[in-house]
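Chain A, query sequence.
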Amino acid sequence: MSGWDEGAVYYSNQAQFTEASSEAEAAAASSTASRHSVLLKFKEFIRNFEKEKNVFPYRESLVNNPKFLVVHLEDLLSFDSDLPSLLRSSPSDYLPLFETAAAEVLAGLKMKVAGDSGEMVEPQTGEVQILLTSKEDPVSMRSLGAQYISKLVKISGITIAASRVKAKATYVQLICKNCKSPRTVPCRPGLGGAIVPRSCDHVPQPGEEPCPIDPWLVVPDRSKYVDQQTLKLQENPEDVPTGELPRNMLLSVDRHLVQTIVPGTRLTIMGIYSIFQAANSSTNHKGAVAIRQPYIRVVGMEETNQASSRGPATFTQEEVEEFKKFASNQDTYEVICSKIAPSIFGHDDVKKAVACLLFGGARKNLPDGVKLRGDINVLLLGDPSTAKSQFLKFVEKTAPIAVYTSGKGSSAAGLTASVIRDGSSREFYLEGGAMVLADGGVVCIDEFDKMRPEDRVAIHEAMEQQTISIAKAGITTVLNSRTSVLAAANPPSGRYDDLKTAQDNIDLQTTILSRFDLIFIVKDIRMYEQDKIIASHIIKVHASAETASSDSRASKEENWLKRYIQYCRAECHPRLSEAACAKLQSDYVDIRRAMRQQSNETGEAAAIPITVRQLEAIIRLSEALAKMKLSHVATEGDVAEALRLFKVSTMDAARSGINQQINITPDMANDIKQAENQIKRRLGIGNRISERRLIDDLIRMGMNESMVRRAILIMHQRGEVEYQRERHIIVRKV
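Chain A, predicted structure.
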């Protein structure tokens, strides 16, 4: 047997290598087989999923709309329990497979068509976009971490910015600059780019120059593109912890989801949590190669209904029954008003107005496309320390959607919308302000009188038309701002002055005043009995302030009111009855007649105009009162209460203050004339003096204080003197 191994025969353990290679082949084959089996499952799901007997929703939806298909993950789970978990764990692998399956099913469902030569050929089918939706609860934007990367996530928020639409390449056509050989390279979806090979595959012939490193040139005309847009999603204002800045997340939408969203829209999105290399990160983080920015590639999107934007949208059967039982009580209106700011003593009519504001009237769309607002605007004007800001804070906590802002710290752009230039792409995009973020809720504006006039003008359109029109930096658009406005203001002199006319006390333009449905003048009246009761109430509130253990009861009560408001706004849209319409018409005509008579007597127009807007205000109040009782018809009783509220607020405000045409005796007229002469002699044109000091000087000269005050008031109305800060008087003309 010598020499048996001389003929280059070598020993090798064949079994070992066979096993290893077969494992690798088996893994590759099994992955191919599993992908193929998943593809078949997806196709079977689209073709054969039945919602009811002989109803195939996905197949019919695909035929009716071949561009995209909305798939519910719950349906997928009931069809095959493995498919949703595959989509959740590695969506970027299986979602393209799902889209391929949808395109193949669509091709099978379409009839053959006649080609150019007259023969029957298969119809051309484009790509089908799969949009996923689910009934699961969204996760918080703050909890998204590294463990979610490349997984399917669901989050909700409010869109604050939308970029322009760009073209994103899906396949890039390359050509070698040396040998001109073409090559097609796929692009990663979302914000990822294409991976271009470093070298060309061409084998040079003898004598031919080899292709250099990086020889590729991009041919843009032959590449394939889809539409892409980036959005910025911010946490809902009510979900942001106190003292924290709201977080925002970059979203990438493509194909049929582009240009469907404007800033201010509340969204719930499903998407793939991904990462990308920011364009300007290399300058900020030198050497930080492994740091990437997170973003979400959206694969499903739904707008959140305004009524269900806070808390769960669905109400349990027990809750609905409890709400209906509560609404059927006789004293529903009184109970709701007692729950409005219980820590504030008195101000019953203001509480009723705030309750009407929280429930709101019914929004109407007319056949010619005009939309009538259903939201109620309320202005509280009056002395300091009359709990105006407390009302605003209560509404901010109780309303389903609310934004609180202060007049001095708010600009026109901050309230409406601003155009901002993006740092990396240098293009302009739109960012919504407070009125846009509170769409479907309430905006509370404190220190309304401290706002600059040009900023106050910016909210005129938002208060009546309930839209915000923007034409800046080449961006022309209209944003929704269907909000109620609750504003608090002080008179120009700080306190409400009964010796002044209504115009001087309410130093706001007629244009903005007519947009408020109810205007309350809140005075700090000094009455011994009332002061005693208020002092006792405040001391009791401080002394018996509830401890942390019983806070849950108060929050539960507050949450119940919030849920009830939410339910009423979603389910009830009342209309006026015929009897109520007739009563309202006659009462409105009487109010107009009385105001005209008053202006004829005094010789000047009312500080607060009574126009058709005020008639609409009474209609909205009547509807809000009916909505509190879950009634679909506003009755005469509702109209009577709405008129009473209107009369104790806006009508009283219009009649408030001193009347110029007071019956003056000749002696009084002579005293006033003397006081005027002394004031003119005492002050030269342009001189300033404190009002108190001027009155004291004239009293020392033997004049009556009330005559001096009346003389100053008359001179102020004629424009001869004017008030400046801290009650200083300056003479303008003599």
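The domain at 158-200+213-279+291-303 is CATH 2.40.50.140 (OB fold (Dihydrolipoamide Acetyltransferase, E2P)). The first strand starts at residue 68 and ends at 72.
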